[in-house]
Amino acid sequence: MAATTLVAARLEPELKNRADKTIRSHNLTATDVIRRVYEYIVITGDIPEFIETDEYDVRIAEKPDKFSEALDWIRNGPLSGYDLSALSDDEMAETLENRRDLDE
User: Fold this and answer.
1) H-helix or E-strand containing 45?
2) What is the pLDDT of residues 44-78, one digit of tens each?
3) CB 79 within 8 A of CB 103
C-alpha cells in the first residue's frame, strides 16, 4: 500500500533544526522516525513510555537562560584555553591570579 496520508505537526524552528540534524546523522528522515513511532504504537498497542511520562519533555528556550549563558562563558570565555583540571586549588588560584594580572 502506498504511503499517501500526511501527518503534520507544529514545532519550534530550533527544535526541528536540531532534531533534523541528529536524524540525518543516523541516515534517517523525519518520515522514518514518525513511521517507526506509529508502527510501535500499532504493534504494541501502547504509547512509548518516554512520551507518556514526559521523560524527555524538554523545551528549547528562545532566549538563553542564566545556566546556558554561564556555560557559554565557561566554554568560550577568557579561561577556555586553559586546562585547569589537573591543578590543585592553590595552583588554580595562582593561574587565575596571573591571568587577571595579564588582563589589567
Assistant:
1) none
2) 999 888 777 766 666 655 566 777 777 777 777 77
3) no
* Helices (H) then strands (E): counts for the chain: 5, 0
Q: What whole-number distance in Å separates Cα of residue 78 and Cα of residue 104?
A: 13
- Indicate whether 2 belongs to any domain: no
pTM value is 0.51
Cell numbers for 75, please give them. 566554554
**Total domains in the fold of the chain:** 2
Report if residue 85 sits inside a domain. Answer: yes
Give the domain extent around 45: 13-52
**Sign of the four-CA dihedral 51, 25, 19, 37:** negative
Sign of CA dihedral 69, 72, 78, 82: positive
